[in-house]
Each structure stands twice: as C-alpha cells, then as structure tokens.
Amino acid sequence: MKTTTNTNFNVFAIFALATFASFSLMSCGDKHSHDEASSPIYKIPATKFKADNDLQERMKKLNQIMINLHDEGADLSKGGADMEAVVNDIFKTCKLEPEPDKALHPILGNILEATKLLKNKKDAEAMEIIHRALAAYNDSFDPGIWEE
User: Rounded CA gap, 49 and 27, in Å?
Assistant: First the structure.
C-alpha cells in the first residue's frame, strides 16, 4: 500500500509540475518578444496600423535595398547582410503597441529568412519572399512604403 501511495504522489507531482509549466509557457506568449518564427501568411488588418517615423524610415531602407538587389551584378550577400542589419535595428528600436507589433513580426521574420537565402545565392526565392513581406507591410501600415 505504501508503494501505491508513493506512486500516486509521484504521478500527482509530475502532473502538477507539467500543468504549472504549461501555464508559465502560455503566459510568456503575452510578453513582447522578437523571436517569433516567420510565417508565409500575413493577416492584413481591416484598418491599417500607424507606423512611426523610425519604422517608416527603416522599412523604406529595406525597400531600397530590395530595389538595389535587382541591379545587374548586385552583391547578394552584402544585400542580405544590409537587410539583416536593418531588421535587427527595427527590433532593437521597436516601440509599437502589441497589436501592430504582432502584425509586424511575420513580415520581419520572413525578411530575415530571405536574407539567409540571399547569402546562399538563392536570389529568386529570396526576392519573392521580400516582395510579399514588403507588400504585406504596405497593406498593414500607414504610411506604406509606396503609393497604392
């Protein structure tokens, strides 16, 4: 009987610990984090979010880098590194409220994924991802990168 009591207690302890851990992990999801995985699908808001000047300036830099990558003989690795630096700067200086921040993360995450492709000379695939990401930004934030 004593063995059963210890076994029951151990099962209860493991269950309690697992339950506590899962609640702790769920609460972490509410915290502001820039480590979210990239996603190919964007959720465009019904009303565009307001982009502050810092974000707008950096997104325009990303767009200009993309334009430059279309030039004959463009250095893909350098372009990828430049884009990565701008995205990391956006993360570092981000002041968005949670809702627009959540919309921005998949956009920036995909641009970071594309920078890896650029460094590996997979420019066609990378450019498609970057184009979609910048278009999603343009559809989600005001002012956008380019006029519609």
Answer: 25
| Average pLDDT estimate for 47-75 | 94
Structure tokens at 32: 């502001």
* Cβ atoms of 83 and 101 closer than 8 Å: no
Rounded Cα–Cα distance for residues 97 and 32 (Å): 9
pLDDT, tens digit, for every residue of 100-145? 999 999 999 999 999 999 888 888 999 999 999 999 999 999 998 8
Q: How far is CA 24 from CA 3, 122, 146, in A?
A: 31, 40, 42
**Each residue's pLDDT tens digit, 32-60:** 444 444 445 678 888 999 999 999 999 99
In Å, what is the CA distance from 84 to each residue of 44, 47, 111? 23, 28, 8
Cα-Cα end-to-end distance for the chain:
75
* Single-letter residue type at 75: D
Question: What residues does 141 pair with on adjacent strands?
Answer: 49
